[in-house]
Amino acid sequence: MKQQANLIRAGQVIEHDGNRWTVLKQQIITPGKGGAFIQVEMRNLKTGNKTNERWRTADTVERLMTDNRDYTYSYTDGDNLVLMDGETFEQFLVPVDLLGDMVPFLQDNMPVVIDLVEGDPVGIHLPATVTLEIVEADPVVKGQTASSSYKPAKLANGVKTMVPPFVEAGERVVVRTEDASYVERAKG
User: Fold this and answer.
1) Which of 6, 48, 67, 108 has a Cα at 20 to 30 A from 85?
2) What is the arithmetic mean of pLDDT over 59-87?
3) Cβ contacts of residue 19 below 8 Å, gap of 6+?
4) How many Cα atoms occupy the beta-carbon half-sphere of 125 within 13 Å?
5) In Å, what is the CA distance from 134 to each residue of 105, 129, 139, 151, 161?
6) Phi/psi of residue 139, nearest 5 degrees
7) pLDDT tens digits for range 6-16
8) How far apart are CA 74 and CA 57, in angstroms?
9) Rounded to the nearest 5°, which phi and psi values hold at 25?
């Protein structure tokens, strides 16, 4: 299906130069002189190589339609994630590389959504947020106000994040899986 380049969004799968690419990031750039263009960071589905491509916003690209299927994460086996279909209980293998920077947020029995193009997995979507424990948090700096600054902290999965000054080590917090940003303290 043809679509205008300015409609490209992260997570979509496009065909370009005879290869299939999954879109990681996109940014519309409006220079002071000349027409706007879109810069797209994308990963080759076969080789895993990343590249950046620019199109004028009026250019068209070939978008591939994806089927979404729900699975449950079971465990990691080497370079593959082992997922289970909740209805048929069949196992499905997906390369770990599809998750990219979100691998540390994967948890046992986590529901995931797989994007498929002609039966091939092309993308994985985790839940928007996860609850994790803070294992390290810097002490509050005297004079620091709660509204103006966050302090560095380390989550139980090893990922670093920024939390409000009142959050201490040992507390559980909710963070976004896409960028590890703090959302709120975990309830209960």
Assistant:
1) 48
2) 89
3) 44, 45, 46
4) 15
5) 14, 15, 13, 12, 9
6) -70, 160
7) 888 877 889 99
8) 41
9) -145, 155
Bridge partner residues of 186 (DSSP): none
Total H helices, total E strands in the chain: 0, 16
List of E strands, 85-126: 91-95, 111-117, 120-125
N-to-C CA span, the chain? 47
- List CB contacts of 177: < 8 A, sequence separation 6 or more: 102, 105, 126, 127, 128, 129, 130
pTM: 0.71
Tokens linked to 77: 């086996």
Nearest to 17 by CA among 57, 44, 50: 44
Domains and CATH numbers, the chain: 2-64 (2.30.30.30), 67-125 (2.40.50.140), 129-185 (2.40.50.140)
- Give the tokens for residue 34: 């000349």
Split at pLDDT 50, 70, 90, the class of 47 is confident
Sheet containing 151-155, strands listed edge to edge, beginning at the edge strand earlier in sequence: 160-163, 151-155, 129-137, 172-176, 182-185
Amino acid at 60: T
Radius of gyration of the chain (CA): 20
pLDDT digits (tens, 9 = 90+) for 159-175: 999 998 888 899 999 99
* Residue among 132, 152, 127, 129 at smallest CA distance from 140: 152
